[in-house]
Amino acid sequence: MADVVLRPSLKFVKFGYLTILLIFGAAFWAHYAYLRDQPPWLPAVAALLLIWPLNRHARRQFIKVTIEGEKLRYETGWLSKSTRIIQLPKVQDVRVNQTVVQRMFGVGDVAIETAGEASRLTVPNLDQPQVVANQILDGFHKNNTDPSGHGSPGQ
């Protein structure tokens, strides 16, 4: 089975880029319609707002979840990395949390709790979070190795 790589959704990042692009266009238009003889401070300020979606885009790239066989690997960081490996058979609880905005965009946070650990791993803003949660809880390998859904022999 091929490894499955999950990252937080790009939907909010794209929405941020689109919003800033519209604000920049409006600022550019307002400057040339009303403030033509002034320095272009309004479009410059609007361009600085681009930092917000760029920051979210970068943070998204630094989170990666890989499901490989019976293991889930959660990696965060860029220069210094933190990796957490969870064995799927030890997963006891998987919770999907969605705000109203997340529900509108079809994304959500997936929280995973394993046997013997007090801490919970939360993966933010995943696309189709309910599908991901079901695959993790059912044992991702069972759904992909045997089309009958019975898993491998001996289980």
Give a quick set of tags describing it.
disordered C terminus; three-stranded antiparallel sheet; 155 residues
**Quaternary structure type:** single chain
In terms of DSSP E residues, the strand content is 25-35%
Terminal Cα separation, in Å?
18 Å
What is the element string, with H for helices and E for strands? EHHHEEEEHEEHH
Residue windows where pLDDT falls under 50 for at least 5 positions: 143-155
**Mean residue pLDDT:** 86
Radius of gyration: 21 Å
Please state the structural category: alpha+beta
Percent helix range: 40-55%
Shape label: elongated
The largest sheet is: 4 strands, antiparallel
Question: What can be said about this structure in brief?
Answer:
This protein is an alpha+beta fold and 155 residues long.
